[in-house]
Amino acid sequence: TILKKYSSTVATIFTGIASAALFGHTLTVNFMLGISIVFISMHQ
Questions:
Q1: 12 near 38, Cβ under 8 Å?
Q2: Are 16 and 35 a contacting pair, CB within 8 Å?
Q3: Rounded distance, CA 44 to CA 37, Å?
Q4: What does the domain layout of the chain look like in residue ranges?
Q5: Residues 34, 4, 15: CA angle, nearest 5 degrees
Q6: CA 36 → CA 5, 28, distances in Å?
Q7: What does the radius of gyration of the chain's CA atoms come to, in whole angstroms?
Q8: What is the sign, positive or negative, of the torsion defined by CA atoms of 8, 13, 14, 16?
Q9: Which pLDDT value is given to residue 22?
Q10: In whole angstroms, how far apart are CA 10 and each of 7, 15, 19, 37?
Q11: What domain of life is recorded for the organism (predicted)?
Q12: What is the pLDDT of residues 5-44, one digit of tens each?
Protein backbone atom coordinates (compact mmCIF):
# COMPACT_ATOMS: atom_id res chain seq x y z
CA THR A 1 0.00 0.00 0.00
CA ILE A 2 2.92 2.35 0.58
CA LEU A 3 4.12 1.86 -2.98
CA LYS A 4 0.60 2.53 -4.25
CA LYS A 5 0.50 5.87 -2.40
CA TYR A 6 3.84 6.97 -3.82
CA SER A 7 2.96 5.89 -7.35
CA SER A 8 -0.36 7.74 -7.20
CA THR A 9 1.38 10.90 -6.04
CA VAL A 10 4.03 10.68 -8.74
CA ALA A 11 1.36 10.01 -11.38
CA THR A 12 -0.63 13.07 -10.29
CA ILE A 13 2.40 15.35 -10.39
CA PHE A 14 3.64 13.89 -13.68
CA THR A 15 0.22 14.34 -15.29
CA GLY A 16 0.14 18.01 -14.33
CA ILE A 17 3.64 18.66 -15.63
CA ALA A 18 2.98 16.68 -18.81
CA SER A 19 -0.22 18.60 -19.54
CA ALA A 20 1.66 21.86 -19.09
CA ALA A 21 4.41 20.74 -21.44
CA LEU A 22 2.24 19.07 -24.09
CA PHE A 23 -0.82 21.30 -24.16
CA GLY A 24 0.62 24.63 -23.06
CA HIS A 25 -1.30 24.86 -19.79
CA THR A 26 0.19 27.16 -17.21
CA LEU A 27 1.02 25.85 -13.77
CA THR A 28 -0.64 28.40 -11.52
CA VAL A 29 -0.27 28.88 -7.79
CA ASN A 30 -3.70 27.30 -7.30
CA PHE A 31 -2.59 24.22 -9.23
CA MET A 32 0.57 23.91 -7.14
CA LEU A 33 -1.49 24.33 -3.97
CA GLY A 34 -3.85 21.60 -5.17
CA ILE A 35 -0.98 19.22 -5.87
CA SER A 36 0.42 19.96 -2.41
CA ILE A 37 -2.93 19.12 -0.80
CA VAL A 38 -3.17 15.87 -2.78
CA PHE A 39 0.41 14.96 -1.83
CA ILE A 40 -0.21 15.62 1.86
CA SER A 41 -3.54 13.79 1.92
CA MET A 42 -2.06 10.70 0.27
CA HIS A 43 0.64 10.42 2.92
CA GLN A 44 -1.48 10.59 6.04
A1: yes
A2: yes
A3: 11
A4: 2-42
A5: 40
A6: 14, 12
A7: 11
A8: positive
A9: 94
A10: 5, 8, 14, 14
A11: Eukaryota
A12: 788 888 888 888 898 899 988 888 998 898 888 888 877 6
